[in-house]
User: Fold this.
Amino acid sequence: MLELYLYTAIAIFVFMTTVFIIAQIITDNSIVDIAWGFGFVIAAWVSMLATQEFTTRQLIVTGLVTVWGFRLGIFLWIRSIGRGEDYRYQNFRKNWGKHAVRKAFFRVFMLQGAFMLLLAYPILRVHASDGPGVDFFMIAGILVWLVGFFFQVVGDAQLQKFKKNKTHPEQILKSGVWRYTRHPNYFGEATMWWGIFLIVLPVELGWTAVFSALFINFLLLRVSGVPFLDERYKDNQDYQQYKRETNNFVPWFPKKED
Assistant:
C-alpha cells in the first residue's frame, strides 16, 4: 500500500506541477478545477498498472473513476472557454499580492493534490488487496454510483441550459433536479464516492475507505462547494426564498411555507 501511495504521489505531484506552470503562463489558476477529475484518473491508472493486476473489482473501480473524471474535466474545460479566471481565484490573487505565485503553488495546486491523494484511498485500497468476485456490495455500489452520476450530469446540463436562457444575472434555477436539491452536482459527486466505498468494502480493510466518502462530504458541505455559493448569493432575495424551500444537499420535495 505504501509503495502504491509513493507511485501515485509522484504522479500527482508531476501532474499538478505541470498544471500550475500552465496556469501561470495563461494567468488562470482556476484551471486547477479542470485538473481535479483528471487527477483521479491518473491515480486510478497508475495504481492499477503498478500492481499488474486486473481483476473485475479493480477494473470496475478504475472504469467508474475514469468515466467520472474525464466527464467532469471535459465539461469544466468546455465551460471555461472564454470566461477567464474564476472570481474565487481572482480574489485569492488580489489578496496574496506579490506572493500570489508561491501561495498559489502550495495553497491551491499542492493542497488539491494532497486532497486527491487522501480521497484516492479507496482506489489504492482495491488495487492493493482485491476482494471476492461479483457480489452484493459491487452491484449495490455500482447502482449508488449511477444515481450520483445521474444527478451530477443532469444537474450540470440543466444549469448550463438555464444560464444560456436566463433573462437577468440574479435569476435562480429552481426546476428539474434543482427543484429537489440546491446542489445536485455536489450531491452527485458525493454519492459517487459512497458508491465506490461500497464496491471496495469487501476487500481487506475496505471499511477504512469510508474516510474518503466522509471527507468529500465535508469538503463539499463545509469548505469548497456549498459555502462559496451560499456566500455569493447571500444578498439575492430570490435565492434566499429558494434556500428556505429547497433541501441544501440530499434531494427531497420542496418545503411549503405557512
